[in-house]
Amino acid sequence: MFIDSHAHIEGNQFAPDRDEMLARAQQAGVKTILAIGNGDGPGTGTLDCAVRFAEKYDWIYATTGVHPHESKLATKADYDEMERLARHPKLLAWGEIGLDYWYEHSPREVQQRVFIEQLEMASAAKKPIVIHCRPSQNGQDAWDDCLRILREHWQGTGLRGVMHCFTGELEHARASLDLGFNLSFAGNLTYQKAQNIRDAAAMVPADRYFIETDCPYLAPVPHRGKRNEPAFVVVTARAIGHLRQLNAEEIGAQTTSNFLSFFGLGENLKLT
User: Fold this and answer.
1) For FRET with 252, which of 108, 195, 233, 271 sits at 20 to 30 Å CA-CA?
2) 34: left (phi over 0), alpha (psi -120 to 50) or beta
3) Are the C-beta atoms of residues 211 and 251 closer than 8 Å to each other?
4) 82 to each of 40, 110, 133, 136, how far by Cα in Å?
5) Residue 163's beta-bridge partner residues?
6) CA 148, CA 33: separation in Å to the nearest integer?
7) Domain residues of the chain, as ranges?
8) Global pTM value
9) Strand 30-35 and strand 2-7: pairing?
């Protein structure tokens, strides 16, 4: 069995065949999806998008959060909405949140402020966090700032987090693990120039990583360039298995166990 620990399933890309897409995931052995609740961003009334899927499907869970791209748009009404959503029994984490200096759709100082504010809210709600971290081209600036902020504003909470779609270097992987975070690997691990991601996937302890699609983005080889979907998480499992001398099913079992333990779901998660 497999768990897609990070999927954006609410968008228009899946509007024509969403039910069929979800059926394909189940047929591929995907037993659970963690639906990411950024929606279309603040002010759009879609920060509850993942919760709506979680209410409709017993095998889907949810997050909520303001993505760094839309940090400049966040209002008190959005914070109030996220605070309400955090009380939902199927909302597992706050995210994805963090820093993105590649596109810089929001100014860096605004991204950092909104990131810290959401860390404080997640801490108050006692929810783990899902981190997006993307530095500027040919730099590690976002990693430096992200890790600093986490050390200053999160490490002392005793709560954990996930480095979603990990794309850093080994030093960032080790620093994230030292902070108590799990690493999550997506389909870009299969890309030719992604040796740094493969290095991290090969060294991460067996109980400290997840697999994800980040769909509809980052479809793995041989699907690269097409719309990604949760069924393709099996391809990523197979690629990680090659690195760790395990088969895809063994990677699926490891990451399923890690997901259940991390989120404290245990027998509460329906896997049949």
Assistant:
1) 195
2) beta
3) yes
4) 14, 18, 21, 28
5) 131, 183
6) 30
7) 2-268
8) 0.96
9) parallel
Residue positions counted in the chain: 272
Q: What CATH fold (topology level) applies to the domain 2-268? A: TIM Barrel (3.20.20)
Give me the residue label for tokens 């700032």.
Answer: 145
Left, alpha or beta for 55 (phi > 0: left; psi -120 to 50: alpha)?
alpha
For residue 190, give Cα distances in angstroms to 7, 176, 186, 215, 224: 18, 22, 9, 15, 9
Q: Please report the DSSP string for 210-269 in residue order.
A: EE---TTS-PPTTSTTSPP-GGGHHHHHHHHHHHHT--HHHHHHHHHHHHHHHHT-GGGS
b/e for 127-156, b at 16 or more Cβ within 10 A? bbbbbbbbbeeeebebbebbbebbeebbee
Q: Which pLDDT score is estimated for 47?
A: 97
- Given a cut of 50, the residues of the chain with pLDDT beneath it are 272
Number of CB atoms found within 10 A of residue 19's CB: 8
Helical H runs in 90-207? 108-125, 141-153, 170-178, 195-203
Q: Decide: residue 180, CB within 10 A, 0-12 exposed, 13-18 middle, 19+ buried.
A: middle
Predicted pLDDT of residue 272: 44
CA distance 125 to 205: 28
pLDDT recorded at residue 43: 95
Closest CA to 180 of 131, 133, 116, 134: 131
